[in-house]
Input
Amino acid sequence: MGPTESFSNIRAKILIAEDSPTQAERLRHLLEGRGHVVKVAANGKEALAALHQQLSSIVITDIVMPEMDGYTLCREIKAHEGLKDIPVILLTSLSGPEEVLKALQCGADNFVRKPYDEENLLSRIDHILTNRELRKREKTRLGLEIDLGGQRHFITSDRQQILDLLLSTYVEAVQLNRDLAVKHAELTQLSQQLERKVEERTAALVAENSERKKAEEKFRGVMEAAPEGILGVDREGRILLLNEQAEKMFGYARQELIGQPIETLVPEPLRERHRTHRASYQSDPRMRPMGLGLDLHGRRKDGSEFPMEISLSPLQTDEGLCVVAIIRDITERQALEKRLRQAEKFEAIGQLAGGIAHDFNNVIAVMMGWAEVGMAQVDPENRVYQQFQKIRDQAGRAAGLTRQLLAFARRQILEPQNLSVNQVITQVLSLLEQVIGAHIELKTVLAPKLEVMRADPTQLEQVLINLCANARDAMPRGGQLVIETKNVEFDEDYCRLHPYARPGRYVMLSVSDSGEGIDAAKLEHVFEPFFTTKEVGKGTGLGLATVYGIVKQHNGFIHVYSEPGNGTAFRAYFPVVAAAAEKVEKHEDQPVRGGAETILLAEDNEGLRELACEALKSLGYRVFAATDGEEAVQVFLAQRDQIALVLLDVVMPKCNGPDAYARIRAAKPDVPVVFTTGYSAESDLLNSTLKKGDTILQKPYGLSALGRKVREALDSIQRK
Output
């Protein structure tokens, strides 16, 4: 066989030593596909045993195997006289100089690097089989000692083997370089693609980060501008974030709360229960809207507590569940609601009191009138006169009570004028000194340039007297009473913090004492009718209710401040008017004078109508009586030339007093009128007549008051 002959078509017996079943099966399938006969051993030991039983044309072995590795198997084969000519191919993932030297030492014929190229492996096998005979003919042995990495390697092999190994190493190196070049090109391309993607992603991240920052800034701006407090709490109940309003609400700086448990802001007695509720909420987080009726309170840094409402919203974040709480301080709202309930209660009481007082007025007026009629007909020294006098006095006391009820109900007839409250105080000062007694020091602090208010001076005097009497009763062992006036102005901010106030300019009238004071529970009821802290028989409980009604009827408001043991201060505020003050004059009652004129009387209450007729006739007047407004008009039209004055009740069936008077004036424009009325709820009917200066006589009236009003009205016409 010549050296150039090809053995590529030789079908050989090949032994595979491979511990990986998958790799062994793959190699078996490849070689059997080329017609080779293949046997597989799981390690070097099994392979050596198989060779002793039956020789193979070639051995392909993995290097790393259990029992016996590839290097050892190769040495055993090359050391055995009957096996040494069998070519050995090493399968390895290593191909450095040290591995080549080890292969030479053990006598290996060739290297194939894993993962191997199938065609390359097959060509190596063909090459080995082709050169097998040539190797048998030439047996030249070479000895070679090599020092590599501090280790000495002695190689004994023939030149062909060395050449084959070097060629296989070279081929592997070339193939590796080719693979590396391909990989390098691929890596270069991938690197370029990666750089482009990194640049694109970086640009996207920059844009995304910019948008995120804008969104965060927007969110932060909205959060900080929110009128309610906002808190973010994590699953463990730690505070993650809060806004400026929450800082103000709870009195903490932001850095003091971040990371702290939310129970820091809960009153101590409620903290354990709050933890339980928080755990329950986190097991089923859901939106909880504001104002579910829960009684919630917050705790400020200074330990004070305040009522609040909270809405909860769960928010999933990268760090886990976050609960956002929006908190609203409802202190001001509760105060407003309390004042509204109180105002509604006072309004209801006022309607009841006004209705009762109106009905009582007619009864009381009849009692007073007939008592006066009886007194006029009996000698003052007579015992019967004294009895009539007692009836009149008690009726007068009852009339005073009804006036107080009407004052609370804001249903009195007012005769307001532009005045300075300083002038009213000065005029009533001597009376006040008698009211409070010598054991109390009375002090006045009056503003020198007090603005003008519009009020009924008589009603204003009643306010002063009642407040001073209340202060006197609070100082049974003496003390100091101070009356003060001042110009004040309330803005929107002040009114938000003090719900009783309304924006605007006011004149303040203050009455304060150094007495016992009033506790908070009683303070809520001081303006209610018939509420009193005095002993039975020591007061009616209508004094402060009267003050409240008078102030309200003047479009003002009143506030009381008191502490047990530190006295009480009542401050009434009356709206300022842009006008000059009028002089407040006291009118002395003139003696009652009668006359011979004819008067038309219209009154639907039979008892009062009968009494008024009797009283007017006793003064010399001639009287036509009517039971309602319609009858009054008919009587007047029939007797217009004789009637000099009409006396009309405001509220009557069929036709009310003002409407009847309008029809009467159409027939006789200059006829004077005196209207009688029980309370100011009828004021809508009186507005037009009051502006014209018509006379008003408020029920219950005495006979003397009736006589004076009638005479004044008749005289005013005669003067014209």
Q: What stands out?
A: Residues 159-225 form the longest helix (67 residues). Confidence is low (pLDDT under 50) at residues 1-8, 139-144.
